[in-house]
Write a structure and sequence with these properties.
Blueprint (H helix, E strand, L loop, with lengths): L1 H22 L1 H10 L5 H25 L7 H10 L13 H11 L3 H23 L10 H19 L1 H12 L8 H14 L2 H28 L6 H21 L7 H15 L2 H35 L4 H15 L3
Helix pairs in contact: 1-13, 2-13, 3-4, 3-6, 3-10, 4-13, 5-6, 6-7, 6-9, 6-10, 6-11, 8-9, 10-11, 10-13, 11-12, 12-13
Amino acid sequence: MKRKIGLSLLFGFMVILILLFLADVRKVAMTLRTFQWIYAPLIIGFTLLNYGLRFVKWHYYVRLLHIRNISVINSARVYFSAFFMVMTPGKLGEFFKAYLLSRITGTPVAVTAPMVVAERITDGVSMTLLAMLGLITYPQASLGVGLSFLALVAFIALIQVRPLALRLLSFGERLPGVRGFSHAFYEAYQSAYRLFRWDALLVATVLGLISWGSEGVAFYLVWRGLGIPGSLTLLSQAVFIMAFGIIVGAVSALPGGVGAAESSMAGLSFLLIAHEETTAIVGTLLGRIFTLWFGVLLGLFIFTLNRRWLLGDVGIDAAEVSFAQQAEEEGKP
């Protein structure tokens, strides 16, 4: 995992170098000198608001699945420690926090892993809704945004059609190589079904709209710092570009969406906001540094501080408590 993350970080660094080369390093330096750094604290503040609200959703899921034997503080230590795992292909490394939560509380990974899936899906729903803000100014993106939204809705609907899902699970039990995991799949489905109920979906989507919308505001402030006049049009364009870029990055399955997100964001920024290549690239890079890369460094820092607690010999007694609590709450023997 260390090697893979190291390669992903190297890949991200190479993407930044390529963009700087395309923009001309001297022009980039001149543009950066004009950036009004007074906006930086506000940008970081809205980025932290995004992180904080996403954690609220995570802990809401923790409580929704009746995982009681973990405090809010420890839940935050688990959640933010896995932030650097975004730099894995398809962000699959984010399942690391499901593993950590399982290790610390004793809850099976089959129960905690759907929380990560639910995060990604509801974030996707929120992102596509935010991306729709900019379709008036750039209708060419309507097809991509629409297809993304329909795919997410179809996935949620499939989970909520319980008879069909149970029939598929029953069919899987008869397949060689799958039979041994049927119980884990059933547990995972039970968690997913609970997480995607309409009330939970509504709460998660609203939190996602506010959290990712705040990151869109952070991207808007980047453009203000570069001297672009503020307006509601600029705000909607910034939110749209940020959301669309993250969607493209997620679909690409590249580590952190690096490369795919930057190229789409820089292109749209050139068309809609900057109308000048260097400014568009600098705005994109600053936006990603204040959001993606800030989060990666924050995650590495928090993980380093909590490494011994997260990966130490913990969770044995907690497992017995967790299973006993779940049995009592669900009425199982």
